[in-house]
């Protein structure tokens, strides 16, 4: 009999857990709205600043700072607890939004976006470590479901609200609202952060497993490699030697950095945390491999308008949340959830890929995309719960940051490969998108094969319960 067998089931939104749950969900919701706002308003921003040629730099800036901040946040959270990481993240968010809202030149806009990526990495790690340390393990699946639900409203309303505000009063007001909204979010989260401070002050600081001066240089290498992949892969590389060599060098640098930044065993999907982190990477690569190009397929190949392309984002926002809600009800069977989730993801991606061909109805492809969203909702939440449950307090930061880094690295590599495929065919075509979709489905199949590597993490989590 486990120690929880005779205890009453805790309630997430009542009692001592309510401030933590409400605070972190409010923070995730704010981050989701910021994400959707930037995606929607960025074309208007660079046009207004007469900086169209800097669009790629503005897009790549937060990607670079995000990866560096993940590495630093993981180290910092393991060393000092999640509270200082969250405070720094909210401060970076506040300053970043203010700089972006008042930017009059491209360098200031880039600075604001760099701070935005820094804030995102700090907050992502800080929230996960806070939940892992402060929340009853039985409530972790439920809070993961709330995190997924927190993205639904921003995904559905965020682009429309941002577009309306941008057209009515200008894009600057979209970002000026961020600091104002941050105030109630901070007030909601403050009791949980204070409790975490008190707990961490009563404990002996954890010794750093890796000195920060050895972590940050490799994080910078990884960030540079990711930006290189993102920028160069968009160009035509067929018949051009230099870009091909640059891409190859970036891939080698990223592999070397990943070996030093990710938890042990991640690159070969070792049984345990390494396998969980590897699955996070495969999940992100497969899903992004189709999701990144689906709006383009709908508009360029199927000749649908922006509304239909935007619906694809709303579909996954809703079904992702539904999948996460299901995992919160079946949290006692993580291996079943992973097998079912990766199976649904792969079948959904395969069905979505039919939209590339002219005879397949658009509704069929979008229904497949809904199934894929259900699959990622099941798997991503389960992998997050496994990471928290199988990690000691002193490793929560490193392991949670490692999962986020694996997802970013894997998706960047896949998108670089996809860019090469499009360049090989000479233009966005049915054949190019067909190959890309086939690769994404293959990654999903690989994830289904590797799913068993999470078994050891399940065993560790069970013993800790």
Q: Number of folding domains?
A: 2
Structural class: mainly alpha
CATH superfamily of the largest domain: MFS general substrate transporter like domains
Number of strands: 0
- The percent of residues in helical segments reads over 70%
Distance N terminus to C terminus? Answer: 11 Å
The share of residues in extended strands comes to under 5%
Explain what you see.
The chain has 465 residues and is mainly α. It has 2 domains: 13-208, MFS general substrate transporter like domains (Growth Hormone, Chain: A, Up-down Bundle); 262-465, Growth Hormone, Chain: A, CATH 1.20.1250. The protein has helices at residues 18-48, 55-80, 82-102, 106-134, 140-150, 152-169, 172-201, 212-232, 241-261, 273-291, 294-301, 306-329, 334-353, 362-389, 396-425, 430-450, 455-464. The longest helix is centred in the N-terminal third of the chain and has 31 residues, at 18-48. It is globular, with a radius of gyration of 21 Å. The model is unreliable at 236-241 (pLDDT under 50).
Short description:
The chain is mainly α. The protein is about 80% helix and about 0% strand. The longest helix has about 30 residues, at about 20-50.
Keywords:
single chain; 465 residues; Growth Hormone, Chain: A; 2 domains
Strand and helix map with partners:
Blueprint: H1 18-48, H2 55-80, H3 82-102, H4 106-134, H5 140-150, H6 152-169, H7 172-201, H8 212-232, H9 241-261, H10 273-291, H11 294-301, H12 306-329, H13 334-353, H14 362-389, H15 396-425, H16 430-450, H17 455-464
């Amino acid at each position: 009999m486990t120690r929880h067998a005779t205890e009453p089931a805790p309630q997430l939104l009542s009692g001592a857990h309510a401030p933590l749950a409400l605070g972190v969900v409010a923070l995730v919701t704010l981050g989701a709205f910021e994400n959707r706002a930037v995606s929607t308003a960025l074309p208007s921003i660079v046009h207004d600043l007469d900086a169209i040629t800097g669009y790629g730099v503005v897009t790549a800036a937060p990607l670079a700072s995000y990866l560096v901040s993940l590495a630093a946040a993981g180290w910092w959270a393991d060393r000092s607890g999640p509270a200082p990481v969250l405070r720094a993240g909210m401060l970076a968010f506040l300053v970043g939004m203010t700089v972006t809202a008042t930017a009059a030149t491209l360098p200031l806009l880039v600075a604001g976006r760099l701070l935005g990526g820094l804030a995102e990495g700090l907050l992502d790690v800080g929230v996960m470590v806070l939940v892992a340390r402060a929340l009853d393990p039985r409530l972790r699946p439920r809070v993961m479901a709330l995190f997924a639900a927190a993205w639904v409203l921003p995904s559905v309303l965020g682009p429309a609200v941002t577009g309306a505000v941008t057209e009515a009063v200008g894009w600057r007001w979209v970002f000026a609202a961020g600091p104002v909204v941050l105030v109630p979010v901070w007030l909601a989260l403050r009791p949980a952060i204070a409790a975490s401070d008190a707990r961490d002050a009563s404990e002996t600081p954890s010794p750093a497993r890796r000195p920060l001066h050895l972590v940050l240089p490799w994080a910078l290498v990884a960030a540079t490699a990711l930006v290189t992949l993102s920028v160069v892969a968009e160009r035509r590389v067929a018949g051009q030697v230099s870009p091909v060599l640059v891409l190859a060098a970036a891939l080698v640098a990223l592999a070397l950095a990943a070996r030093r930044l990710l938890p042990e065993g991640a690159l070969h999907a070792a049984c345990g945390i390494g396998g969980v982190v590897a699955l996070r990477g495969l999940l992100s690569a497969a899903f992004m491999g189709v999701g990144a190009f689906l709006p383009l397929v709908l508009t360029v190949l199927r000749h649908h308008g922006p509304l239909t392309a935007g619906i694809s984002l709303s579909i996954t926002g809703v079904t992702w949340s539904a999948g996460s809600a299901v995992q919160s009800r079946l949290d006692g069977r993580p291996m079943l959830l992973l097998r079912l989730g990766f199976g649904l993801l792969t079948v959904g991606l395969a069905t979505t890929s039919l939209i590339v061909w002219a005879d397949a109805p658009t509704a069929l492809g979008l229904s497949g995309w809904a199934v894929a969203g259900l699959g990622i909702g099941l798997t991503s939440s389960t992998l997050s719960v496994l990471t928290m449950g199988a990690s000691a307090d002193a490793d929560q930061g490193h392991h949670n940051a490692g999962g986020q880094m694996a997802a970013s690295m894997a998706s960047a590599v896949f998108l670089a490969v996809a860019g090469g495929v499009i360049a090989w065919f000479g233009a966005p075509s049915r054949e190019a998108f067909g190959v890309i979709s086939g690769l994404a489905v293959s990654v999903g199949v690989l994830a289904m094969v590797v799913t068993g590597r999470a078994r050891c993490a399940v065993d560790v989590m069970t013993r800790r319960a």
